[in-house]
Amino acid sequence: MRTKLLMGFVWVAMWVEILGTKGYPLGVGFGQAFCGGNLAEAASAEVRQGESSSAEGIKNTDVFIRVSPRDPRYFEFSDGRPYVPIGLNLAVSPTGVQLGVSNVPELPDYQRWFRRLAENRGNFARIWLSSSTFDVEHQRSGQYDSERAKRIDQLLALARQYGIRLKLCLEYFRHIGDGPQPHFAKRLHHVSQGGPAEKTADFFDTARCREQFKGKLAWYQKRYGDDPIIFGWELWNEINCIAGGDWVAWSEVMLAELHRLFPKNLAMQSVGSFDDAAYRERLYRPLCTLPGNDVLQVHRYLDLGARLEVCRGPVDVLAADAVRELTAFGIQKPILLAESGAVEPRHTGPFKLYQKDTAGIILHDVLFAPFFAGAAGPGHIWHWDVYVDRMNLWWHFGRFASAIEGIDPPAERFQVQQIEHPRLRIYVLAGRKTWLAWCRDKENTWQRELAEGRVPLPVREASIRVKLPAEWIQSAQWRTYDPWTDKWQELKPEGDRLLLPEFTRSLVVRAERR
User: Fold this and answer.
1) What are the mean pLDDT values of the chain's consecutive 10-residue runs (514 residues total)?
2) How far is CA 431 from the centre of its chain?
3) How far apart are CA 270 and CA 126, in angstroms?
4) Three-class secondary structure of residue 64 per DSSP
5) For the chain, how far is it from start to end, CA to CA, in angstroms?
6) Using an 8 Å Cβ cutoff, are 177 and 188 in contact?
7) What is the pTM of this model?
8) Contact between 340 and 366 (Cβ < 8 Å)
9) Which of 129, 191, 208, 217 is the most exposed place for a label (fewest CB within 10 A)?
10) How many angstroms separate the CA atoms of 206 and 277, rounded?
11) In 3D, which of 97, 93, 75, 95 has the Cα closest to residue 85?
């Protein structure tokens, strides 16, 4: 049925299946492009250098992103200003499936997505360079298509226009024909297709294959080296899923090569969703201790088929817990919840209750919980097309940006705390000059609001006690921010007690010493 809908475009069936493994069926983006809607409009738009609708603006796209020397748990621009990556996965373009069989350079989906993200003060996106839209190694193993690379050129130009830093993920395939899930195969690397490997393990373990992959990195470096719009290079999407080979040893070699070729860009690796306790030592400790891995990334979803109970409960809890799991390794590097969202059991499709989440409570929790649990930024959701775009939830990125506006995380050297409360889960970042708390109503969850259809009840007359010196409390300016109404309100402490205004779902409390 899906193939018929796409009228014989051979790339489509493959990509529908690949994206379906993370709950990504055909979505609004593809439907609009196929039917003519936004495709014609967006394709006619020109990339105008020197213009930007993002908060960052074009003036800042000539500086790089680095791990802050002031506090290695956070990022900053190479000129010392703080940088918090506010954005999401925009890994694959549905229209790009169609582009995979043509030489059309336009990227209407990315034009629209970047614009919507920038309008809401977003500044970050993750892209899969191995998708059919951008894959330069699509004809023969070790041969790279400079014509296909023009789409990457266009992507980078769009990113500069809108002030969006890009995390570029180099590969996703899991086998070369000797593994399950045919849609995850890249058979051109097999010797029968002129490639260098007889089995998947060879691609990662043999000197010949490693040298060929280094050649691919060198090709990218020659074309895109020292480009500050690139947040960083990610070697692989969930590399532990490969059907053979020593992914840890391979990653160590290639991370070193990335640093040699792209000394001004970050380098990183990723593994699969942290939904099993065994993955703590099997996957995530090896990932986080990899030499040269600049960013500690974790993937985790709401998944009712997950082995870990935390993955079946409130989204803010599972997101914050993922950050705490990596923090517990004691490695002073930035942590990011790099993929999140909600899926049907065992990643068999997108969460069916997305269609009821018109308010975006899942996206809200994915954004706020990780940062307030000590991550270097908000969480980055996966379902950009069938959830964020379809439900028109882009405004949530702007609300997160407002909540932290003007804060310099490396300068604050935040200490992560929690305040016990009968009605609220209170996540606290206590800094040198700033005290932040995100108060999440325990009674409002995806189960109650989406599955059971209960209207969220207001939280009234809630109060919290803060453990701060009296002088600090008295000298600070206290305010609350409601991310659901976009309203700030002055707050006057009564000793160490804060009487919160009425709110629904969540509230941010912010204090700044004068």
Assistant:
1) 31 40 37 29 33 42 95 98 98 71 72 97 98 94 95 96 98 96 95 98 98 98 96 98 98 98 98 98 98 98 98 98 98 98 97 98 99 99 97 98 98 98 98 98 98 98 96 97 98 97 98 92
2) 25
3) 12
4) coil
5) 63
6) no
7) 0.90
8) yes
9) 208
10) 32
11) 75
